[in-house]
């Protein structure tokens, strides 16, 4: 306890930042930390800084840079005025080339350190064609608790406390009032700014998350990157005359919107999966296309947020699967069945499993819409659905595609994969650490044959990784 108190807020001087680590933090190993790793925020590798220790655990410390002695040559000027406050693009101060380098390293380090299996050479990461404006969906929150910077507070000015934007990292109650955001193409910024201005001018109440009061909660904008479709959905706590006028204002100001919707949410949380969405104008979906296939995306549907790079990710997945048209393919964690439908033409049959029921409905609609008749979709928890009974009822898979959430696959699912013994598994992951853990478990029967990292999220530390496994 005494030691803890001694080190908390401790200043460590002249520390060289060594590497980029997990969750967008960087790594240092100053002598003072006695062999522990120190995770540092606000820096890039090769910066030399003084640190203040903010957290200490047995095996690591966390720290923040309080003084820069020299800046790394890997730095670039961040282009967003909200950088450093907004949680959105934490790596904007690192050149894109170095972002790719550290993502590749993240995959390599995790697989080597945690999987401890024989690995082939890792193919260089596939860069994203667009490094700004690459997202097809953003959700902005209304709040009566705007985050003010220390510079703003120092002016002594009276600021409007309302905000429409993103949460400050680690704060559920404080938000940045966004001006220009570089994540989603126009008219995303224009729509958000117009709605923000209208709401202030008409004194519409921004939600207070502490008191659970206020009218305006959330604004979702989804823009198809392959068609002209554009969806806007407003989340409010009531639908009244004021909201009707706001909806009409959005419709009149942005005639390019093809799907204008709203949802009334009086719950404490922002999720709307269990609520009825009302279509105010236009269609209740947008469409993305891929190799002539059409994917219908409703407000509740999941779709990869970087559509252009998603196509590349799916092509890699399909190449790794090496389908000849004869195979039965299982697509685990299928979401809205996009991968399943994408590979269906090259397979005898594709069976997709996913636990969100509406997503499974979308998957079926998308098969039908595209005249695909060799897919089957089932909703349920993977560890419960994928059992002997399921395998007896359906053809056994020759190839398994799996794209689990960040937590990776449940041990029961891995055991089932080992029991099934498909000749090939293609493992798509958004978390190389859990993927590495799963590869070690699969090593009993499967050898890693190819590894391809993909950058879906420029300006962030996130990396996607596709691994091909073959039965030994
Ligand atoms: C990374 S997404 C995969 C998306 C999909 N492959 C695509 O490219 O659009 C992971 C999916 O796993 C689903 N999921 C998470 N846990 C699950 C579980 N225990 N059983 C079944 N599905 C699950 C999520 O709902 C989500 O759709």
UniProtKB/TrEMBL annotation:
Residues 5-67 form the TRAM domain. GO terms for biological process: rRNA base methylation. Keywords: Methyltransferase, S-adenosyl-L-methionine, Transferase. It comes from the Bacteria. SUPFAM superfamilies: Nucleic acid-binding proteins (SSF50249), S-adenosyl-L-methionine-dependent methyltransferases (SSF53335). The active site is at 430, 430 (nucleophile). InterPro entries: MeTrfase_TrmA_AS, MeTrfase_TrmA_CS, NA-bd_OB-fold, SAM-dependent_MTases_sf, TRAM_dom, U5_MeTrfase_fam. NCBIfam families: rumA. Belongs to the class I-like SAM-binding methyltransferase superfamily. RNA M5U methyltransferase family. This is 23S rRNA (Uracil-5-)-methyltransferase RumA. It comes from Bernardetia litoralis (strain ATCC 23117 / DSM 6794 / NBRC 15988 / NCIMB 1366 / Fx l1 / Sio-4) (Flexibacter litoralis).
């Amino acid at each position: 306890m005494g030691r803890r108190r001694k080190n908390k807020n401790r200043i460590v001087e002249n520390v060289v930042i060594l590497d980029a680590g997990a969750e967008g933090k960087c790594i240092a190993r100053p002598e003072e930390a006695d062999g522990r790793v120190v995770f540092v925020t606000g820096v890039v590798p090769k910066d030399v800084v003084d640190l203040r220790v903010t957290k200490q655990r047995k095996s690591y410390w966390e720290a923040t840079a309080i003084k820069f002695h020299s800046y790394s040559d890997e730095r670039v000027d961040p282009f967003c005025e909200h950088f450093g406050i907004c949680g959105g693009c934490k790596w904007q101060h690192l050149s894109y080339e170095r972002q790719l380098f550290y993502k590749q390293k993240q995959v390599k380090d995790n697989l080597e350190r945690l999987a401890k299996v024989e690995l082939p050479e890792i193919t260089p990461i596939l860069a994203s064609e667009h490094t700004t404006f690459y997202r097809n969906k953003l959700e902005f929150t209304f709040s009566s608790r705007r985050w003010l910077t220390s510079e703003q507070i120092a002016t002594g000015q009276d600021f409007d406390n309302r905000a429409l934007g993103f949460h400050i990292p680690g704060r559920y109650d404080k938000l940045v009032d966004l001006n220009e955001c570089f994540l989603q193409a126009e008219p995303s910024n224009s729509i958000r700014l117009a709605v923000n201005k209208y709401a202030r001018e008409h004194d519409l109440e921004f939600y207070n998350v502490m008191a659970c009061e206020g009218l305006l909660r959330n604004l979702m904008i989804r823009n198809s990157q392959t068609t002209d479709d554009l969806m806007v959905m407003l989340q409010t706590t009531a639908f009244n005359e004021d909201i009707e006028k706001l909806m009409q204002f959005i419709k009149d100001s942005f005639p390019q919107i093809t799907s204008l919707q709203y949802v009334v949410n009086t719950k404490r949380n922002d999720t709307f999966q269990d609520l009825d969405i009302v279509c105010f104008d236009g269609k209740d979906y947008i469409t993305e296309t891929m190799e002539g296939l059409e994917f219908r995306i409703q407000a509740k549907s999941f779709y990869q947020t970087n559509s252009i790079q998603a196509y590349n990710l799916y092509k890699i997945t399909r190449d790794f699967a090496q389908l000849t048209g004869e195979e039965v393919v299982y697509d685990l964690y299928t979401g809205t069945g996009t991968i399943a439908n994408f590979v269906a033409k090259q397979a005898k049959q594709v069976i997709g499993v996913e636990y969100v029921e509406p997503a499974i409905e979308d998957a079926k609609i998308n098969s039908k819409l595209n005249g695909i008749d060799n897919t089957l979709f089932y909703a349920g928890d993977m560890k419960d659905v994928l059992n002997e009974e399921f395998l007896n009822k359906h053809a056994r898979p020759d190839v398994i595609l799996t794209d689990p959430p960040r937590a990776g696959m449940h041990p029961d699912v891995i055991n089932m994969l080992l029991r099934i013994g498909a000749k090939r598994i293609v493992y798509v992951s958004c978390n190389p650490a859990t993927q590495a853990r799963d590869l070690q478990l699969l090593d009993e029967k499967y050898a890693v044959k190819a590894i391809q990292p993909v950058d879906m999220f420029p300006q962030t530390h996130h990396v996607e990784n596709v691994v091909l496994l073959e039965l030994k």
